[in-house]
Write a structure and sequence with these properties.
The chain is an alpha/beta fold. Helix content is 37%, strand content 24%. The relative contact order is 0.18. The model has no long low-confidence stretch (mean pLDDT 94). Bound molecules: adenosine-5'-diphosphate. The site of adenosine-5'-diphosphate has 12 residues, from helix 1.
Length: 236
């Protein structure tokens, strides 16, 4: 089957930055897959995500990607002056929906993320986890075929992180969407993803298929042994 996303020998050098951010990086992601990119800070994870999103262009190499891709950033990246409902419906109106249709549709996604009681609140009135949920609702509302998550839980406490892990897995199971997520936590990657892609210094070091049935338990023996296996290569 043709992959939904493929990067072939992608190299990326940023202007005004001498080091190569990505070097001959290749990866193929199948439709419906949940892939997690991990690796030390600065190894090029976000660059891969931005290239997939179309926010950066490769300096060399080729990329295949669908058009309808949504990205969720670390802090939700909400418009502070808009209510929860307007944060979500704005992107739908930008796609041509009327205000009324957009409000109705955004309500469905706000409910899906458990934020029904917060529709008219503003971002400053929400917790970090709730803000992140709005970011996810907004990303999903445009019905993307790929959801990109850039360390979406890094600013949250462990309880909120756990709840959002469950939400993301539920959404993934229900919508069959393709998910590519960046994380700096091996435990998180192994708990969520089917494939964990380890990067170092702009290159792909190893892909670890995680053959553990869902639901996975972060402290379960099979998860811990997989984490240990990856940790050995991560710190080698
Ligand atoms: P990671 O997400 O793994 O922390 P990044 O993809 O953000 O890594 O960065 C990879 C390398 O590219 C780093 O050395 C970083 O400093 C550099 N870099 C990232 N974005 C830019 C940019 N917009 N301009 C210049 N250099 C950048």
């Amino acid at each position: 089957m043709e992959p939904i996303i493929s990067l072939h020998n992608v190299t990326k050098t940023y202007l005004a930055h001498e080091e190569i951010a990505l070097h001959d990086f290749s990866v193929a992601i199948q439709k419906g897959q949940f892939v997690c990119l991990i690796g030390p800070s600065g190894c090029g994870k976000s660059t891969v995500l931005k290239i997939i999103a179309g926010l950066e262009t490769p300096s060399a190499g080729t990329i295949t990607r669908p058009e309808n891709i949504s990205m969720v950033f670390q802090n939700g990246a909400l418009f502070p002056w808009l209510s929860v409902s307007d944060n979500v419906s704005t992107v739908l109106q930008a796609q041509g929906m009327t205000k009324k249709e957009a409000r109705k549709k955004s309500g469905e996604y706000i409910d899906m993320l458990g934020l029904g009681a917060y529709t008219d609140k503003f971002p400053r009135e929400l917790s970090g986890g709730q803000r992140q949920r709005v970011g996810i609702a907004r990303a999903l509302a445009v019905k993307p075929s790929v959801l990109l998550l850039d360390e979406p839980f890094s600013a949250l406490d462990p309880k909120m992180t756990h709840e959002l892990h469950l939400d993301i897995l539920k959404i993934w199971h229900e919508t069959k969407i393709t998910i590519v997520m960046v994380s700096h936590l091996i435990e998180e990657a192994v708990t969520l993803a089917q494939d964990v892609v380890l990067m170092k210094k702009g290159s792909l070091t190893e892909t670890f298929p995680i053959d553990i049935p869902y639901p996975r338990h972060e402290r379960g023996a099979s998860v811990l042994s997989e984490v240990e296996k990856i940790r050995r290569v991560f710190f080698a």
